[in-house]
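Let us work through a complete example step by step.
Step 1: write down the sequence.
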Amino acid sequence: MITEVSEEDFLLLSGIQHMAFCERQWALIHVEQVWSENIRTVEGKHLHERADDPFFDESRKAVRIVRSMPVVSRRLGLRGVADVVEFHYSKNVIDGETCRLKEREGWWSPLPVEYKRGKPKRDDRDAVQLCAQAMALEEMLNLNIASGFLFYGEIKRREAVDFTPALRQHTSELALKMQQLLWDGTTPKAKKGKRCSQCSLVEDCQPYWMLRHRPVAAYLAHMVSLEVNE
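Step 2: predict the structure and record it as tokens.
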């Protein structure tokens, strides 16, 4: 169970997708301050630039669209920016699902939308990031958000994400792990896998080198044992 984190210890919400993808990747970026770009990160940045405009607030008849909305969660210890939050209009209050907006009549239900390059992934890293945004919005607005959307640039389509109890629990556990790794200053050991080919930090991580070479401590222990046996 996560307790509230003080403001000075808040971590970047966007980093939770790195943690969901690979603990070592998150630590390299957020503990060791290492970063590299590949074609995926560059294209993703360009896609977000189209969505992120802190001065843009689009209003339609029944929907208010807010871009680059700052979000924060004391419970998760995360802060960041939601690409898009749609507020859907309702004449009447829906208990636990609607809120008031400044200088707006009626009641409004928030719906987070995260923009991603490419197409839906097999793992849940994108869903986790969106869920963290929703949990932050819930905390800020004192309501519940049942679902949101991931928009993928390659297929140019939204994919719905339900914020199930299991997804919320997984998101909370990842946020706690982030806090623990930063507090300990720990970077997990490299583990070779299929995902390594998709990682922009593969040259910094060196997972293949780690597997080809034994750790120094193990090597020294082996040499000591040889001397003892002699």
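Step 3: interpret the result. The chain has eight helices and seven strands.
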